[in-house]
Design goal:
CATH class of chain A: Mainly Beta
Structural class of chain A: alpha+beta
Distance between the termini of chain A: 5 Å
Oligomer: homotrimer
Strand order of the largest sheet of chain A: 1-8-3-5-6
CATH topology of chain A: Jelly Rolls
Number of strands of chain A: 8
Number of domains of chain A: 1
CATH architecture of chain A: Sandwich
Number of helices of chain A: 4
């Protein structure tokens, strides 16, 4: 059994912004030499999140709209009382989406659908280079 | 340390539909021979999701109602501009719920509550056989 | 490769209540001796959840408010028809947030941001001692 760790980075605009990291994760599986096992990834930082989606401009906008409905930018947040940095919505959005995913690796590839991509989301109200910690375990 | 991989399938109706997969996951832990370790599972496809819930008809309907409130079927989605298949809400719902879970295995059993079941959810607007990739690692 | 399992407990008030478990998880990584690998954790029970957030009183209240907007306590739930225990919203909230996280371990520490803590949330409408199953795998 092998274990392989890496970090990947993605420069994202002010939130909500997101980018497809599937091919970078896949490249690391190749480097790890793991054929059968598990990939986990978690975003480092409390205003980012990870999920999967069909990476298509329309549905990306639809997801952004839905996240804004759940935790809108324009309403009062008590987080302001501590930091006055205007990103209370960013923290709440990220906590609701969740920081991590776990995807099986089969025959050297992640077990994903043809139209299913892994995305990192920046919810912060300023541009951020988001770091993602990746662990690949298997044989 | 052992590693065991499998895929399970569940035929589900047009979304939102869900089914309990706890006993099938548990049967695969038995096959794996793992007594202490970790089970991860991820749905394959961008209009499905996984979570845990008390698998009881009332609360299943309550969860469906909540998901419909978060990303309703009847509002405009930009995903329509690309594909015209009427399932923009399905993609958004699945991305918000998330594709994967990770559950500890203790004494050959998943560490779940008595009333806590693992469910696969089909959010797509047509019946789908949902595939779930499962990895079990441990001793 | 090592594997280490443990359970941690946290007494929480009636929902929505949450507490930071980062330092207890970190103490178990130290006990495990794992320097590079993976920590997973899942809440045991269908009315609890796990996520990450900046553990600061303002944003904690903001997250509680957002969860209440998504699945409010005061609306009718069909779960009542089965159990009459008034916690339909608790089950729905927990299923939406999700039961588990997976965080990489690098140099003996979880790969988290400086302001990113792991929290266990009790959504139940009564005080609960929430149990969390933890697995640490690595070298």
């Amino acid at each position: 059994m092998k274990i392989y760790s890496c970090k990947i980075e993605k420069s994202l605009g002010a939130g909500i912004d997101m980018e497809d990291i599937t091919s970078e994760l896949q490249a690391n599986i190749l480097r790890s030499g793991v054929q059968h096992g598990l990939l986990t990834a978690n975003v480092i930082g409390s205003t980012g999140s990870l999920t999967t989606i069909e990476y298509e401009p329309g549905v990306i906008q639809d997801l952004k709209d839905a996240i804004q409905r759940i935790a809108p930018e324009g309403i009062p947040y008590k987080h302001e009382l501590a930091w006055h940095d205007g990103n209370g919505h960013s923290h709440v959005q990220a906590a609701l989406l969740g920081p991590s995913i776990a995807i099986s690796v089969c025959n050297g590839k992640m077990a994903l659908g043809r139209w299913q991509q892994i995305v990192v989301i920046n919810h912060d109200n300023r541009a951020r280079t988001r770091k993602i910690a990746v662990t690949i375990i298997g044989e």
